[in-house]
Specification:
The chain has 254 residues and is α/β, with parallel strands linked by helices. It has one domain: Aldolase class I (TIM Barrel, Alpha-Beta Barrel), CATH 3.20.20. The chain contains ten helices and 13 strands. The chain has helices spanning 32-41, 63-72, 86-94, 104-108, 110-120, 156-165, 187-197, 210-218, 229-232, 238-247, and strands at 3-13, 16-21, 24-30, 47-51, 77-80, 99-102, 125-133, 141-145, 150-155, 170-175, 202-203, 224-227, 251-252. Strands 1, 2, 3, 4, 5, 6, 7, 8, 9, 10, 11, 12 and 13 form a 13-stranded mixed beta sheet that branches. A hairpin with a 4-residue loop joins strand 8 (141-145) and strand 9.
Length: 254
């Protein structure tokens, strides 16, 4: 049985951890170094560090903050936001990232994904796919870029399939509609990407109940579950999530 990873997410803006709803209405949540250290000690299997405004602001990831976070954690760190080139990936890895998440740049320059896989290895390359409902598309989910601000008209499953063909090793589909709502993950999106790629998929956007994490794995076919609000604001601990997954017969590292 596959062991399920639980991943707290640090959405970053202006050097602070923030959290919003539908990618907007951001509110301050924590200091990134303090939060990362607490999550690492609290049982996180991995931590995600996503600089959510880097692309829109036309800048690179906050590598100085990445370096500080990497120094205090003992688990893998996935870094994303503003990653546009293989040089950016190289710098993120040099700062202590274990994996790098690419989103808008993967859409705009797919060739870079193939180049990154060849240079750094498939397991280090995560494709982040922000998506929202579009019932006219085959998967009923449309890719958005620029931090969820720009519609592309592209089917999410079709885009994921293209990225898998280029060798990307992991996928991080996030539902714009479910983000921050605590109403549950977008299982249609998660499952569509999992089935299209047959690669490890991280469910993201909308966790609010313990059963949502189970649903993401059982119905969404996710191999990892990512959450922000419920961890940042003390709704659940990582331990509680893992114990609930285990009680439902799923394998976790307790």
């Amino acid at each position: 049985m596959e062991t399920i990873s639980v991943i707290p997410c640090l959405d970053m803006k202006d050097g602070r951890v923030v959290k919003g709803v539908h990618f907007v209405a951001l509110r301050d949540a924590a200091d990134p170094v303090e939060a990362a250290q607490a999550y690492s000690a609290g049982g996180a299997d991995e931590i995600a560090f996503l600089d959510i405004t880097a692309t829109v602001e036309g800048r690179r990831t906050m590598f100085d903050v990445v370096r500080k976070v990497a120094a205090v954690v003992k688990v893998p760190l996935t870094v994303g936001g503003g990653i546009k080139t293989c040089a950016d990936i190289e710098e993120a890895l040099a700062c202590g990232a274990s994996r790098v998440s690419i989103s808008s740049a993967a859409f705009r320059n797919p060739r870079m994904v193939g180049e990154a896989v060849r240079q750094f290895g498939a397991d280090r390359i995560v494709i982040a796919i922000d998506a929202d409902v579009n019932d006219s598309l085959p998967s009923r989910r449309e890719v958005y870029i620029d931090g969820g601000r720009t519609k592309t008209g592209r089917d999410a499953a079709d885009f994921a399939r293209e990225m898998a063909a280029l060798g990307a090793g992991r996928f991080l589909p996030t539902s714009k509609g479910a983000d921050g709502t605590k109403d549950g993950y977008d299982l249609i999106l998660t499952r569509a990407v999992a089935e299209a790629t047959e690669r490890p998929v991280i469910a993201s956007g909308g966790a609010g109940k313990l059963d949502h994490f189970v649903d993401a794995v059982v119905e969404g076919k996710a191999s990892s579950v990512l959450a922000a609000s419920v961890f940042h604001f003390g709704v659940f601990s990582i331990r509680q999530v893992k114990e609930h997954l285990s009680a439902r017969g799923l394998s976790v590292n307790l």
